[in-house]
Amino acid sequence: MDRVLPLPADEAFALVTDFARHGEWIPLTRMSVPAGGARPGDAVVARSAVVLLDRMTLERLDPPSVVPGAGGPGGATAGGVGRAPGTADGVAVLRKAGPVLLGSATVVVTPVGTRAARVRWTEDVWLRGPLPRRVTRAVLAPLLDAMVGLALWRMDRSLRR
Fold first, then answer.
1. How far apart are CA 69 and CA 122, in angstroms?
2. Cis link prior to 8 (omega < 30° from 0)?
3. Contact at 8 Å (CB) between 64 and 117?
4. Which helix (H) or strand (E) holds 4?
5. Vertex 35: Cα angle to 31 and 37 (nearest 5)
6. Is the whole model's pTM more than 0.85, yes or no?
């Protein structure tokens, strides 16, 4: 799921990776994160609808950055279509460790000029248990897409008020 937020990429990345605030974006969800924010290797725990426990480990947290020497005369451009020249994406990856949900959640923040950023949030998730991964992944995908779409819409709406 993608959405362009009206924020510079570093601010958009900080917003979407402020896991303690995810309860504002995802209905019936509360997050537990270490004091001062999560760092790679830290545990992040979500509890949704009071009953669904989602234990995760933050595997990667790389904010967007300027690529040295990129974008100038003779310099490389790190960008693709719609990306600001001379920039690198921000990437966060959470690995889901159960007890019910397994898989990963990935957020990629791409600078789109100086005042906007494209947030791409994907969930590759399946259920622990005897059913085949491909089956539970297919069942969960539309639900998770709706959750991510709503979260990004709520973030965008809060920024435009």
1. 31
2. no
3. yes
4. strand 2-5
5. 70
6. yes
